Amino acid sequence: MRRRQDRPHPQDRDTFWLETASVLDWITMPTKASDVSWKAEDFRIKWFEDGVLNACAECLDRHLATRGKKTAFIWEGDDPEISETITYEEVFDHVCRMANVLKARGVDKGDRVVLYMPMVPEAAYAMLACARIGAIHSVVFGGFSPEALASRINDCGATAVITADEGRRGGKTIPLKANVDRALEKAEGVRLVLTVKVTGGETSMVSGRDLWWHEMRDEVTADCPAEPMAAEDPLFILYTSGSTGKPKGVIHSTGGYLVYVAYTFGLVFDIDPDKDIYWCTADVGWITGHSYMVYGPLARGATSLLFEGVPTYPDPGRLWSVTEKHNVTILYTAPTAIRALMKEGDGFVKAHDRSSLRLLGSVGEPINPEAWRWYHDVVGEGRCPIVDTWWQTETGGIMITPLPDEPMDKPGWATAPLPGIELSLVDQEGHRLEGDAEGLLLITAGWPGQARGVYGDPQRFIDTYFSAYPGTYFTGDGAHRDAEGDYRITGRVDDVLNVSGHRMGTAEIESALVAHPAVAEAAVVGYPHDVKGQGIHCYVILQSDVQETDDLPQTLRQHVRQDIGPVATPDRVQIAPGLPKTRSGKIMRRILRKIAEGHPDQLGDTSTLAEPEIVDTLVADAQRFT
Ligand code: 6R9
Question: Which residue lies with its CA nearest to atom 15 of ligand 1?
Fold first, then answer.
């Protein structure tokens, strides 16, 4: 057993990262590690600048000689009767053909391609096909609405979309192609919609724009040379929510990102590509689905399981039956899934043989000690370590986590930064805190996997992450550090919610609500939810000429669902006569949060409010929710 305190933190980080870069083959090895300045005046983030590589070739071509016949992906369908194994050679063939179809239709290096896909192998092929020709992919979660899809297509100026006729999840279908058609009524510039036939459901095709993948794949060859890319060329854009405004398109680079995910995937999961069957249950629409379902595992030549369905279908034993069926050795999932399955009792777990498992992972939100213990003791039979990995869309890969050969002595603690990563805790004013302390989590030194910018808005990137505490990266999270130097993440300190591991800005939900004709003003806060982590509580003020009716809350919930997508559906809508505001008109969210949390006794000083009486009304009315 190794002690966490003995992790080898490099003194000379540039030398460390340059050595780490040899985890990839490169076309031209970089000779320089970093050129990073987080000062607003001369802001730049560059890694391995003179290196040349192709991310797709790193994930596929270089394994063909030694691992061509090895399984790259195991695909487990929504229907438990259906699964498939796909070798590295086969993935290579599909990806080269898809790349050639894109090329034939004029998709070029640097062009943006939006992927709106269910969890089928073609989602991974599409990412890799873009990478092969140097096009920048932007995966939009298949659960997002046509409106949300359109705004992302417009924001990144995509010229092509890759989608499927329909998706399948938990026995239900999702009309992906129809959603794309609706989105494209509001988006311009898309010349190609490449559509994968998944369910065979009825689909309308626009001639001259839409192509079927199964018809095109035989029209092209599998000969498609990988485009040499500079390390700093963007690999992908992924939209994520922040505390203000619309979701932002976070840009990741080719070289630094791929080095970082290959490094962390190997280290954190202690991967043996010849023995492990690795399963990450994330959706391809999230960063975890990029870094640790596709790029990390394939860069390492591992076998990655892709799951089309949900953990509760056809019954809450699905994760364990799939584990048994495919002899999964490493399972990486989210606390929300663990909590939901824990509720169903141990029987579903114990009904399946889990002796293949050797390591468990958690990601997406803080894991409560109770869920940790159940995961450890029941799922892992007490013999599997848990890596509780803290990271973000913006960090590209895992930053803080226990390692499998270290003691599992702190349930709920993400523990320590990986070698090469430097953290700091500060108070609200930015004073550095030493020793045992609770504060805001900062990252104080650059790392190769960090995001390079916000698409189309470089200033927003600097303002959001590097301005609050100049010269450092502000994570938006709070943390507690103990006397041994271990970290426990306490959650977001900004107006970002984490609902079932999905990141959402309260501002997005508020703007969806006020777009409804009945609504004058809205304020959205999170409250603790025992399965989802956080639930969504909306305070809504109606337009003066609108009468409150019994079905209005439900109408508004549906409205948000339609506007953003099912993951954003409010749990509670509280129609309110007013909101607590300061005399200068600022909404006091702290008070709204306490009311939603069911702690009206902790409101603190409300005397500075413009109308203090409003608080009593809100408290009395909110009681029906708790
Ligand atoms: C990878 C991912 C990022 C936010 C992050 C934090 C929360 C993620 C966590 C965790 C506690 C963990 N978070 N992992 N909190 N412990 N192990 O989830 O990226 O969707 O961008 O969310 O998720 O609050 O700031 P993303």
Answer: 365
Ligand 1 site, CB within 6 A? 240, 286-288, 362-366, 388-393, 414, 475-477, 489, 491-492, 498, 503
Task: DSSP for 119-176, please give it.
Answer: SSHHHHHHHHHHHHHTPEEEE--TTS-HHHHHHHHHHHT-SEEEEES-EEETTEEE-H
Which helix (H) or strand (E) covers residue 196, if one does? strand 192-196
Best probe residue, ligand 1, of 283, 392, 567 (max atoms within 8 Å of C-beta): 392
Query: Per-residue pLDDT for 605 more than 90?
Result: no
Looking at the DSSP assignment, which residues form a beta bridge with residue 438? Answer: 480
Give 479 Cα–ligand 1 centroid separation in angstroms. Answer: 12
112 phi and psi, to 5 degrees? Answer: -100, 135
Chain segment 123-158, per-residue pLDDT in tens: 999 999 999 999 999 999 999 999 999 999 999 999
pLDDT at residue 626, as a whole number:
81
DSSP conformation letters of 422-440:
-EEEE-TT-PBP-SSEEEE
d(CA 299, CA 278): 14
Average pLDDT score over residue span 57-83: 98
| Locus of tokens 């192609």 | 177
What b/e readout covers 180-190, taking b as 16+ CB neighbours within 10 angstroms?
Answer: bbbbbeebeeb
Tokens of 46: 């560059």
* pLDDT(582) > 90: no
Q: How far is the CA of 497 from the centre of ligand 1 (A)?
A: 11
What percent of the chain has a predicted confidence (pLDDT) above 70?
100
Res 243: pLDDT:
82
pTM for this prediction: 0.95
- 540-541-547-550 Cα dihedral, nearest 10 degrees: 20
User: Residue 234 in contact with residue 249, Cβ under 8 Å?
Assistant: no
Q: Does residue 6 come out as left (phi exceeding 0), alpha (psi in the -120 to 50 range) or beta? A: alpha
Query: Cα(391) to centroid of ligand 1, in Å?
Result: 5
Burial class (CB in 10 A: 0-12, 13-18, 19+), 58: buried
Across the chain, what does the average pLDDT equal? Answer: 96
Q: Which residues contact 242 (CB under 8 A, 6 or more apart)?
A: 248, 464, 476, 494, 496, 505
pLDDT at res. 604: 83
Closest CA to 618 of 597, 602, 601, 596: 596
Ligand 1 midpoint to CA 363 (Å): 6
- Tell me, what's the ipTM? 1.00
> Which of 391, 492, 497 is the pocket-test mutation for ligand 1 (most atoms within 8 Å of CB)?
391
CA of 240 to the centre of ligand 1 (A): 12
pLDDT recorded at residue 442: 98
The answer to whether residue 39 scores a pLDDT higher than 80 is yes
| Strand 303-307, strand 71-76: pairing | parallel
Shortest-distance Cα residue to atom 1 of ligand 1: 392
- Collapse the DSSP code of 380 into the 3-class scheme (helix H, G, I; strand E, B; otherwise coil) and give the result: coil
Mean pLDDT calculated for residue range 168-192: 97
Q: Which of 391, 403, 177 is nearest to 291 (CA)?
A: 391
pLDDT tens track for 251-264: 999 999 999 999 99
pLDDT at 107 over 90: yes
Count of C-beta atoms within a 10 Å radius of residue 423 = 20
On whether the CB atoms of residues 414 and 487 are closer than 8 A, the answer is: yes
Task: State which amino acid sits at residue 54.
Answer: N
